[in-house]
Structures are given as structure tokens and as C-alpha cells.
Amino acid sequence: MILTESFYARKDVVKIAKELLGKVLVTRFDGILTSGMIVETEAYAGATDKASHAYGNRRTNRTEIIYGHGGAAYVYLCYGIHHLFNVVTNIQDTPHAILIRAIEPMEGINVMLQRRGKEKLQPLLTAGPGAMSMALGIHTKHSGLSLQGPGIHIEDRGIKISKKDIVAATRVGVAYAMDDALRPYRFYIKDNKYVSKGKGL
DNA sequence: CAAACGATTTTCT
DNA sequence: GAAAATCGTTTGG
Predict the structure, then answer these.
(1) In degrees, to the nearest 5, what angle opens at C-alpha A192 toward C-alphas A190 and A193?
(2) Whether this model's pTM surpasses 0.85
(3) A61 CB-to-strand C distance under 7 Å
(4) Once rounded to an integer, what is the mean pLDDT over residues A79-88?
């Protein structure tokens, strides 16, 4: 089943980040379907989190989407090269978001290989937020799209991730956030080879 | 209006 | 392991 607004609108962003593990992220652009199981996420707790773009309730044109109601996509450009895909959670004016960092490819693998300029399936195809977005065809122009719409959505296909297989760790690439960089807001599936290596382990 | 910077990835040494 | 690539957003003049 497709996750609905009520899934994203809840208030515990950390809990939702854990629940997203094992769900399936699906994109369909120009009639081309690609999908993969989410194996790695990071929570960003808005106003109280220095690592978030919305720290201190700072509002800018770019981050306005995070302030909207849960269930939308927030895509932004990092380092001028990479498109990072986030899921907006919580309710209007509470800027929580979850970064999807890695997936295990399921459908449309040949398309993903083509988009990434690769020839054979290997973990680095979708391990890491920038690489995953490119494989799924996600672009900053998709920022603000509803996750219930035709382009992007997340499905529950009944995959159960055992609690003992969920690992909590510190987030990647947020050293500038000082003490908040130490929060255990990164979650991934233990022993899954499609989890990105990161730098924070 | 100009300048600095980043929730990363790839490539070269 | 270190450094470059590259551009929209944000911040300062």
C-alpha cells in the first residue's frame, strides 16, 4: 500500500525515520518506473537541530517546503552537483524532514544503470543520497511534489525489518552542527550492502 | 549586485 | 587519503 498523509504527519520524526527502513521508494517520470527499498535514512528535527536547514525556525525561499504539511518531497542541490531527496514530516509550520540516504534497487535497474553511466549493478549505484537521487531520476525541479502524487511515492510492501537489524548512528557530513552532529539520528539496516559508507561511523 | 558555502561524489596521487 | 568539481541559495555591501 502507498503511505498516506497520516503516516508523514505524525510528530516523532525519529520514529518515522526508523519506520521508513524497509519501505519502497518509487518514482515514475516520463512513464519510466524505478524503485528500491529504503535501507538508510537520517532525521532532521527542524528548529531545534543545528544540522537542519530550518534551525531556529529560519525561513528562506528554499526551505519553505519543509514548513509545509508532512508528505511532500524536499529536494535541494548540494555542492552544486548533487540532488538530495528528503521527505517532509510533521504538520504545517513544524519543519521536520528525513533525508533518504540509500536504497536497494528493485525495479528499473537497467534505467538506473543508464542514468548513472554504469554497466553492472553494484552497491555504489544507489549508496549515498546524491547517487540514489540520480539513479531514481530525482531532480530539484521535483521539490515540493506530493508523495501521494503520480511522480514519487513510498510504498509499504509488507517488508518487516527486525528491531535488532536497525542500527542508530551519527549523521554524515554535518560536523558544522557542533553538538547536534552527535545526535544518533542516522538509521540503517544492519549488514545491508547498499548502505552508504559515509564518514561518521 | 557580488561573494561565500555546502545534509557529496568522483578522480587522481 | 586528499582535492576538485560546480551552482543555487544565502548573506553581506
Answers:
(1) 135
(2) yes
(3) yes
(4) 97
